[in-house]
Amino acid sequence: MKAAAGKVAQLLVVMFLVSLGTFSLTSLMPGDPAVAILGDNQSPEAYAELREKLGLNEPLVERYFTWLGHVFQGDLGTSMVPPNEDVTSLIRSAFAVSIELAVLALVVALVVSIPLAMISARRPDGLLDRAASATTFGIMSVPSFVSGLVLIALLVNQLHLFPRVGWVGVTDGLGQNLYHAALPVITIALLEIPTFTRVLRGDLVRTLQEDFVLSARAKGMPAWRIMIFDAFRPSSYSLITVLGLSLAQLIGSTVIVETLFSLPGMGRLVVSSASQGNITVVQGAVLVIAACYVLINAGVDLMYSVIDPRIRRVGA
Amino acid sequence: MSAPEAAALAPTARPARRRRRIDLLLWFCGAWLAVLILAAITAPMLGLQEAQDAAKTLLEPVYQPPSLGSTHPLGTNALGLDMLSRIIYGARVSLTVSISAVLIGTFVGGTLGVIAGYLRGKVDRVIGTLTNTLLAVPALILLVALATVLRPSALNMALALSLVAIPGLIRVTRANTLAFAQREFVTVARALGAGRARVVFRELMPNVLLSVVPMCLVYVSALIVAEASLSFLGIGLRPPQPTWGNMIGEGLNGKMEDYPHLVYVPAAVLFLTVFSFNLLGERMRKRWDKREVSL
Amino acid sequence: MSRPLLHVRDLTTTFTTSRGEVVSVDRVSFDLERGQTLGIVGESGSGKSVLGRTVMGLTSTAPNATVTGSVLFDGVDITNPDKKMRAAYLGARIAMIFQDPLSSLNPVKLIGVHITETLRQHDKSISRQEARRRAIELLDTVRIPDPARRFGQYPHELSGGMRQRVGIAIALACRPQLLIADEPTTALDVTVQKHVLDLLGTLCEEQGMAMLLVSHDLGVVAGRSDKVAVMYAGRIQEEAASSDFFRHQRHPYSQALLDAKPHLENPARAELVSIPGRPPDPAHRFPGCRFAPRCRFAQDRCREEEPSLESGGIPSHGAACFYPLDAVRSTKEVSI
Ligand SMILES: Nc1ncnc2c1ncn2[C@@H]1O[C@H](COP(=O)(O)OP(=O)(O)O)[C@@H](O)[C@H]1O
Ligand code: SF4
Ligand SMILES: [Mg+2]
């Protein structure tokens, strides 16, 4: 219990540091935000007025706490670039895209890597294991913008299977939504498959040497049954850690894929806002992304106790 | 029951199958990196075609596809600039930036990790919180945020990239320090009256740093990708300075369909390099694990 | 006379390791009759576990194992590579219990599930309710108090003795004819050991089950076995009816082992203090008797020729020794 409290406290400190970091970072941006927003052929009075409105004349610390106060009320401010939308709603719609991409990609990655890891672990260093390991190793070395371009060349330009760019929300029909999400999702999944496969394979090989696996075999259980019902769950701890980290990292680090396929996700929001000097949006987005990381991490800790009964009883 | 089990039970002796093959792949990767690094270092002396200044290539053919025997073995781009030359100058940037970033990251992350692992307690918690803070922001977002503040120079790029490597290196060095600190030699040093600083820097650091060398190689490849990604997004080092990432980016907007070499040439080079660093790191780690086991 | 339940001939298990070939079980032969118990005793590392696992066909957890020789169970060669046939024997007609009851139970599975899955694996027609009822009954059979509640608990919630009882319950699930018990009590407290061993003995008797009782401790085997086989460096060195063996050991190693018998007050894993030296490195084979480097009675012949169980000259009390200890009489009483 005490350990849990310590963990929560640390996560709060992390959140605080992230917000402080992004806040001060974005206020270090070169140039004058007022100029960035209004363009550079306005009267000096117009700039001064805008600066006053944005609170840029206050000291940094004061601005930070004003901002933080608003954040706690769910108000991330307004975009500094016309049409000056509400940052919270900008982030909400971008977040929906990113989380869908990330979750779908992780599901695809799991669907591929779990069987792959099991096949590899059946006979460590066997032919299949070495083939799988060589393949995942190769995939691991392909950056997503390269694999994305190759997939586009193959599946879009040659086979015309998927649309080249664009996004259709779930609200406009699940079929169209998935059709547009497919290629980006595959591209992202390719990034995760090697790690998942390797982590799970390693743990499976170790678990399969445990006594309880031997005793399951002594009971006459077939190999596939032992793999799925005996070895998999105790071998999934590292996979879950990696899964959590991936989910947290993917919200936002799908920038490349979002750019490649022109998808309106968090990554693109941050990149385009950053290049316009749109501080409020960048701050808000980074804060939300970091909050996700912190929450997901806490979730992973919780997951452990669900899979491992030994922790469950101790923690309760 | 699996086939090898069955084989093991069959009453026939099975000859030991242990081939000592030469690791061809490893040699190939090593050779590739050696050639690449050598070319990058000696680039100005190689008599390469123009890589940067479009004013000098007005008469050169544009979008020429690769043709190995010609003056432009890997072809030219939209401005008639030579791809081979751009690849090699791009390698200078990629390798310098990512290797120095890893060195900075190893030094900073390694020091913090060893200190956290050896001193434990409060220091450990503070460093742990810092690590988590850096990890809380995805690498690319962190880099994008930094890129908007910093001027896109090679030095700034290396500093920003090192921030990506630092949290992971802190975690691993911390874990390895915890393991090494249990070993006899630390106890012996302490018994001989070594102070904390001496134990950390003279006893633990060398061992721990050596143990993260494989991971550093993997980080070099990750940071090459990160740098290329930023250039690809147009927020890294800008053209005309060639980098592998902005070269690939040139193929976007429909040009790839007509001139695939614009993308495939830098992509292949990027892949080979990243693969080689990964493989080197992986093989080294395996060696290392075996050594640890036999110790 | 009917054929024995278990008929093992020249069973040899070799591991290919980086240090070379390791012969962990070397030309082992024995017979086990229905309902009888054979105690297999030897220092740790002598190959007892590998023998037990090889008999069960489980040696291949290590993919580097090679097995030769034959194991006939009820007349059928169960080293037969046919998976289906073997699966029908494992767990159903031959069962095994392991040394460490905690690590041999899956930490994320309920106690009850360990038993019901075995039942349902070997009898597909049995319903969930029926399996549950039988599992609780089995927990009761191995004298676990409050079996219905234990059914829904996890392995870590039980004490060591209770866990090993669960291991026994799992083994008994399909009423096997042969039980292989590999150091079933070594991981348990001394006071619990006796309870579990006595329970095993009783259950064997009740169910007419034959047992291969493996232990490094002669005291565990004494009084609970019909026959005893002493193993050293992968080979059986002495084999006799328990009544004969405990009255009189013929092999110098057996006697040394008996002298070293740990007493109840001592920790369960006592070393063989009375014999200087260590067992030979299994990767490094030498000619002659394997015990010669540590044997007080070794002669030149012992270092040149390898003795067999017949070398002792008395067929009913085999001893792989050229100079068996027939003159010396042991008066030691052994029991636990
Ligand atoms: N998978 C394996 N690979 C190589 N050697 C093994 C393996 N399993 C057991 N051995 C060797 O077989 C010998 C006998 O081991 P074991 O049967 O466990 O002894 P014990 O009599 O204590 O049960 C040991 O020397 C051990 O090193
Ligand atoms: S054969 Fe010789 S060395 Fe071996 S046990 Fe008998 S007396 Fe000792
Ligand atoms: Mg054993």
From TrEMBL, chain A:
Where does the sequence pass through the membrane?
94-119, 131-157, 177-196, 237-261, 281-304
Compartment annotation: Cell membrane
User: What protein name applies here?
Assistant: Peptide/nickel transport system permease protein
Q: Which domain of life is it from?
A: Bacteria
The UniProt record lists the keyword Membrane:
yes
Instruction: Report the PROSITE patterns cross-referenced here.
Output: ABC_TM1
Tell me the Gene3D superfamilies matching this sequence: MetI-like
InterPro entries recorded: BPD_transp_1_N, MetI-like, MetI-like_sf
Keywords, in A-Z order:
Cell membrane, Membrane, Transmembrane, Transmembrane helix, Transport
Annotated ABC transmembrane type-1 domain residues: 95-304
Give the bilayer topology: Multi-pass membrane protein
Q: Which family does it belong to?
A: Belongs to the binding-protein-dependent transport system permease family.
Biological processes per GO annotation? transmembrane transport
- Does Nucleotide-binding count among this protein's keywords? no
Query: Mind naming one GO cellular-component term on file for this protein?
Result: plasma membrane
From TrEMBL, chain B:
Q: Which UniProt keywords apply?
A: Cell membrane, Membrane, Transmembrane, Transmembrane helix, Transport
Pfam families on file: BPD_transp_1
The membrane-topology field of this record reads: Multi-pass membrane protein
Q: Which GO terms describe its cellular component?
A: plasma membrane
> Which residue range or ranges hold the ABC transmembrane type-1 domain?
91-281
Q: Where in the cell is it found?
A: Cell membrane
**Xref: InterPro entries:** BP-dependent_transpt_permease, MetI-like, MetI-like_sf
What processes does the entry annotate via GO biological process terms? Answer: transmembrane transport
Q: Which residues cross the membrane?
A: 24-46, 93-119, 126-148, 154-173, 208-237, 262-281
Task: Tell me which family the UniProt entry assigns to this protein.
Answer: Belongs to the binding-protein-dependent transport system permease family.
State the name under which the record lists this protein.
Answer: Peptide/nickel transport system permease protein
This protein's species is Microbispora rosea
TrEMBL record, chain C:
Positions of the ABC transporter domain: 6-258
Primary location: membrane
Keyword Cell membrane found: yes
The region annotated as signal peptide is: none
Q: Which UniProt keywords apply?
A: ATP-binding, Cell membrane, Membrane, Nucleotide-binding, Transport
Family annotation (InterPro entries): AAA+_ATPase, ABC_Ni/Peptide_Import, ABC_transporter-like_ATP-bd, ABC_transporter-like_CS, Oligopep_ABC_C, P-loop_NTPase
Q: What highest taxon heads this organism's lineage?
A: Bacteria
* PROSITE patterns xref list: ABC_TRANSPORTER_1, ABC_TRANSPORTER_2
Instruction: Name the membrane topology term.
Output: Peripheral membrane protein
Q: Which Pfam families match?
A: ABC_tran, oligo_HPY
Molecular function (GO) terms for this protein are: ATP binding; ATP hydrolysis activity
Q: Where in the cell is it found?
A: Cell membrane
In Gene Ontology terms, what is a biological process of this protein? peptide transport
Question: May I have one GO cellular component term?
Answer: plasma membrane
The record's listing under PANTHER family reads:
DIPEPTIDE TRANSPORT ATP-BINDING PROTEIN DPPD, OLIGOPEPTIDE TRANSPORT ATP-BINDING PROTEIN APPD
Q: Which NCBIfam families match?
A: oligo_HPY
Tell me its family: Belongs to the ABC transporter superfamily.
**Descriptive protein name:** Peptide/nickel transport system ATP-binding protein
